[in-house]
Amino acid sequence: MKNFLLKTSCFLLIWSAVSVSTASAAQLFVSVKNITHSIYFTPLLITAHSSETHLFRLGESASPELRAMAEGGDISGLSGLAGGADADTVENPAEGLLAPGASVTDIFIDTDQTGNTLLSLVAMLLPTNDGFVGLDSLELPETPGIYTFYLNGYDAGTEANDELITGGGAPGVPGIPAAPGGDAGMDGTGVSSSDANTKVHIHRGNLGDGDPSGGSSDLDFSIHRWLNPVAEVIIEIL
Amino acid sequence: MRIKIFEINLTTTAIMLIVLSLFGCSDSSSSRSAYLISVTNLTNNQPLSPPAFILHEKEYAAWQIGTSASAGLEELAESGDPGPFLAEAADNMHVLATSQGSSVIGPGNSENVEIEIKRNSDTHLSFVSMLVNTNDAMAGLLDASIGSLGRNESITLYGRSYDAGTEVNSETAESVPGPAAGGEGFNPERNDTGFVAAHSGVVTAADGLQASALDESHRWQNPVVRLTVTRTK
After folding, report:
1. Cβ contacts (< 8 Å) between A216 and chain B: which residues?
2. Count of domains forming chain B
3. pLDDT by residue (tens digit) across B138-191?
4. Which residues of B98-126 are buried (b: 16+ CB within 10 A; e: fewer)?
5. What is the largest distance, in Å, between two alpha-carbon atoms of chain B?
6. How far apart are CA A137 and CA A147, in angstroms?
7. Cβ–Cβ of B219/A9 closer than 8 Å?
8. Helix and strand tally (H, E) in chain A?
9. Shortest distance, CA B6 to any CA of chain A (angstroms)
10. Of the candidates B40, B45, B223, which has its C-beta nearest A59's C-beta?
11. Could you tell me if B57 and B100 lie in one domain?
């Protein structure tokens, strides 16, 4: 009898653990706010996924798909990794750039068909060489309610932060694609020739300088810097 | 007679083993807990000195913002040597265990340590390591509660940068011990604010501090380290 009770309690423990991890289908609204002073977000990719998928991993080398997003804002490769746009993967909800101080709200994610329990988000930071805002595999809360998270700026570690506006956005092409605020300079000599940390890491921020037509950087040191966090994400679990 | 005693002992042992195995599901590890801690350097160009890990009860504080650093913490923050700081911790009655990382952790790299303690629901983790291309900056995590972690559960934590407040942030080649400069490490003279604070970052020569031995690659933003803690026992 004692033996039976003990075995039963073992079984119940295992059963409850399994049931917690599978009772996960959810519907939720996601809102994203760019809380920086003067940095733009390129089109966002937001996806619920399983533990098999990662858009990026801190401390690991960037995938080619992550590199394309971080250097040029191209989310097509990463979206493909997440199975493409569907009920729980949303591409470009802001329909273009998300400006400093701007929000995109009520992005609907439905995991009823997939049972996916992890949420990730990425967008390139402009103007940077390979900076991005990211959320990696947030475990979606199971209790209905409103949850707020703050996200950091990351460096993909794939391109030198030369801080030169060249239009270069393709993977492997140096330079920054654009400064959407129209507030950058030109003719800089280049800030950095390589990254010391070639894995995904916390972005050290732009350096910039005070010379709009020369100096080392095309960026402005009183406009294009930031301090973490860079984004506010609000998740409403229905 | 001797044989009979032997048989009884065998039987007793067998019963004991059965009882132990019955309780094995939920109870055998209740007296000890072990934690696997993985730390990752998230900076671009600030190697981390061999880190200090301290498991403790909530009454212990490795440091406090606004209060002067201990002598051991000063030495760690200025030279990267965790020995004196860990010796101070080991003398504290609220410290459960300490551990020292084996080597410098370069940017993007990770190191694992495993620490075992007597089970204690009031277990907290503090972590500290020097950002070596600075005068006295530390990557730190203060007082993270890990006592409620179940077996095989993990928690991910992030550590920020602190200024020990014991050495002025001149950034000169003579005063920064890391590979960017190769200058002096520990100096018992205190010539800064005298209290621990959140770090304001480095200026560097790239941003106009001409005497600085640092360049823009040595700048950082918080967080500077990630710690993943898994209770393995």
Report:
1. 206
2. 2
3. 999 999 999 999 999 999 999 999 999 999 999 999 999 999 999 999 999 999
4. bbebeebbbbbbbbeeebeeeeeeebbbb
5. 92
6. 15
7. no
8. 3, 11
9. 27
10. B40
11. yes
Domain that holds residue B57: 33-231
In a domain, A183, yes or no: no
Please list, in sequence order, all residues whose beta carbon lies within 8 angstroms of the beta carbon of residue A108, skipping any fewer than 6 positions away: A27, A28, A29, A90
Residue of B nearest to A197 (CA): B44
Sign of CA dihedral B85, B87, B92, B98: positive
Residue A126 lies in a domain: yes
We report the CATH number of the domain holding residue A51 as 2.60.40.2130
Contact yes or no for B223 and A202 at CB 8 A: yes
First to last CA, chain B: 43
If one counts every other C-beta atom within 10 angstroms of the C-beta of residue B186, the result is: 18
What type of residue sits at position A199? K
Q: Which amino acid is at A138?
A: L
Please name the amino acid found at residue A218. D
Give A167-192 pLDDT, tens digit per residue: 999 999 999 999 999 999 999 999 99
d(CA A144, CA B173): 55
Q: Is the domain of B26 the same as that of B41? A: no
Name B8's bridge partners.
none
ipTM of the complex: 0.85
Question: What is the distance of C-alpha B69 from the center of its chain?
Answer: 16
Of B22, B25, B43, the CB nearest to A201: B43
Together in a domain, B48 and B145: yes
User: What does pTM read for this prediction?
Assistant: 0.86
Is A199 inside any structural domain?
no
Instruction: Collect all residues of chain A within an 8 Å Cβ-Cβ radius of residue B200.
Output: none
Q: How far apart are CA A97 and CA A170, in angstroms?
A: 18
CB contact under 8 A, A9 and B26: yes
Instruction: Check CB contact of B105 with chain A, cutoff 8 Å.
Output: no
Range of the domain at A28: 3-156+226-237
